[in-house]
Amino acid sequence: MPTYTPPLRDMQFVMHEVLHVVDDLTAIPKHADMDVDTINAVLEEGGKFAAEVAFPLNQSGDAEGCKLDPVTHEVTTPTGFKEAYAKYVEGGWPALACDTAFGGQGLPHIVNQCFYEMLNSANQSWTMYPGLTHGAYAALHAHGTEEQKQTYLHKMTSGEWLGTMCLTEAHCGTDLGLMRSKAEPQADGTYKITGEKIFISAGENDMASNIIHLVLARLPDAPVGIKGVSLFIVPKFLVKQDGSLGARNGIYCGGLEHKMGICGNATAQLVLDGAVGTMVGQPNKGMQAMFVMMNAARLGVGNQSLGQTEVAYQNALAYAKERIQMRSLTGVKAKDKPADPIIVHPDVRKMLLTAKAYAEGGRALLCYSAMLLEKEHSHPDEKVRKDAGELLAMLTPIVKAFITDNGHISTNACMQVFGGHGYIKDWGMEQFARDNRINMIYEGTNTVQSLDLLGRKILGNSGATLRKFGKLVGQLVAEEGVNEKMAEFITPIAILGDQMTKFTTEIGFKGFQNADEVGAAAVDYLRVAGHLVFGYFWARMAQVALREIAAGNTDSFYLAKVQTARFYFAKLFPETATLMRTARAGSKVLMDTDAALA
User: Fold this and answer.
1) Which of 27, 51, 439, 567 could form a disulfide with 404 if both were Cys (CB 3.0 to 4.6 A apart)?
2) Sign of the torsion angle spanned by Cα atoms 265, 270, 276, 277
3) Predicted local distance difference test score (pLDDT) of residue 159
4) SS3 for 586?
5) Which of 483, 435, 517 is nearest to 58 (CA)?
6) How far, in Å, CA of 285 to CA of 77, rounded?
7) Around Cβ 464, how many Cβ atoms within 10 Å?
8) Both ends of the chain: CA-CA distance in Å?
9) Is the four-CA dihedral 463, 532, 523, 449 of positive or negative sign?
10) d(C-alpha 122, C-alpha 386), whole Å
11) What pLDDT does residue 482 have?
């Protein structure tokens, strides 16, 4: 049976010793009273909920799955899920970072982000039910009318109602301009919506009294393509004027997907049969509102893979210390045993350190991104808000794609540590690999994220945002450039930082002549950019750890951080050289292949 221990010490290190988040938070009026003890206390309790309530349901939920009643179209979630959600609501967890105007606790995004990392480690399938509600809440908070906010946000904040996002149709995934769902205006200002949506996570369940679906559909006179898409609130149960529930709406579950992973989450096929909806935002401007939810979801998906990487690493490390196989190549290590623990073998350590480095690097990036989100929405200085928003927009596809790709590498490596036992369900490792796999696909595949990064976020503004991040790298290089103890961490990011300018310019020039060149280079480009970002944070973490060691701190945590940073730069970061070479190979070797793919 797998186990899970919330990584509170590492979260505290990133937040308080590396990023100094309280200093930034107290500069924001609504968080002026925030302090380290409050953040730590909340996350300690959140860790207990994740480990003691959500985690014990992970394997059983995966084995049992969800059940659809074909007559009533109602879905029953795995045993214990509904009761765990009731405890979640009772504890006030849905309201953690929500607006106090709607009953929220108003805590910083970073607290909610760290809490959700632990929930994702504990049980990604269960966590997706309340997790999607945060995205729906954010979209309505940003673009809903006052009446819509008052009608829905209080109940979504309390957790009484859940929320979803309904985009995908059988013939249209990424290319949402192809959608066929229709919205017919009614005399009372509502719309009757008809169509079918697929792959709707948490689309039907028995955990809450109502589900607030945000649905994309087309008006009768809508322009062709993505510019003709509108967004609608379509509740499972209609809501009366007094806020109570009314009649069942014309939206129901027509089927559940049978999936590779996240089996405890109801991935629904939803049928809209004249469902009553109200418009969010302006006609044909639905993507503006939906992007609030989609961008939040992309950060959330990165957090899902961070959670899977962490829990897989913890279990692989424990197993490697106990499992004995063969002797060390340099001589017997466990003289009292017939063989040595497999942790003595170099490649086992490589697999473990890969997962550890990617988990801790991802945690630093996600915490930093959560602070950018806080600044973008709430900082009193307009320039700070603008800069934070631009930097977060660039980092979002890296969070989504780089962290989920790394999660795939890590969960598979950790499963490999177990050998044949990793392939057996009892140990839980194959579930971590299966559950993580969806994260590379949904909310825009990682290729789509790569195109977004290179095409929109980098070349779209001639590299201006990339240069802003480059300045952060440059400041760290200038600060530590003469420190010999930091050389192995600073030199690689200094070199790559310089190379990125030429690399980006070269790809951009080729792309100007032939757009396929951008498509051919994008995935490799994002991974190079991901390593630059991870390298920056690993250098900062090493900087803090080395200073603590130099000051006489004997806590082994800091030595472990330096050793992991050393591994990352020696064994993982160097793939950037290969990636730049393959990116420069161009599109011809991909596109001039009609005979090969005939």
Assistant:
1) 439
2) positive
3) 98
4) coil
5) 435
6) 35
7) 12
8) 48
9) negative
10) 35
11) 93
Of 120, 84, 177, give the one whose Cα is nearest residue 6: 120
Return d(Cα 488, Cα 491) in angstroms, integer: 6
pTM of the model: 0.98
20 CB-near residues (< 8 Å, 6+ apart): none
Q: What is the DSSP string of 82-128?
A: HHHHHHHHHTTGGGTTS-GGGT-----HHHHHHHHHHHHHHHHHHHH
Q: What is the CA radius of gyration of the chain?
A: 24
Q: Is 443 a residue of the active site?
A: yes
pLDDT tens profile 15-24: 999 999 999 9
β-strand 161-166 against 182-185: which pairing, if any? unpaired
- Work out the average pLDDT over 442-469: 96
Q: Which two tokens stand for residue 11?
A: 């979260």
What 3-state class would DSSP assign to 305?
A: helix
Q: How far apart are alpha carbons 54 and 61 in whole angstroms?
A: 10
The conformational region for residue 443 under phi > 0 = left, psi -120 to 50 = alpha, else beta, is left
Say if strands 230-235 and 210-217 run parallel, antiparallel, or are unpaired: antiparallel
Which pLDDT score, from 0 to 100, does residue 291 have? Answer: 80
Take residue 478 and report the two structure tokens written for it. Answer: 């200038």
Give the pair of three-digit tokens for residue 172. Answer: 């249209």
User: For residue 359, what are the contacts with CB-CB under 8 A and spacing of at least 6?
Assistant: 7, 306, 309, 310, 313, 410
Q: CB within 8 A of 554, min separation 6: which ones?
A: none
Exposed, middle or buried: residue 280 (CB in 10 Å: 0-12, 13-18, 19+)? buried
Residue recorded with tokens 């909806």 = 277
- Work out the average pLDDT over 65-77: 97
d(CA 298, CA 405): 13
Contact residues for 490 (Cβ-Cβ < 8 A; gap 6+): 476, 477, 480, 481, 483, 539
pLDDT digits (tens, 9 = 90+) for 288-319: 887 887 888 899 999 999 999 999 999 999 99
Q: Give the Cα separation of 277 and 238 in Å (integer).
A: 9
**Amino acid 228: pLDDT:** 94
Dihedral over alpha carbons 81, 86, 89, 93 (to 10 degrees): -40
User: What would the two tokens of residue 194 be?
Assistant: 């008809």
Q: Which of 204, 443, 480, 548 is catalytic?
A: 443
Q: Give CA–CA dist 203/132, Å, rounded.
A: 10
| pLDDT at 295 (0 to 100) | 84
Q: CB–CB of 117/363 below 8 Å?
A: yes
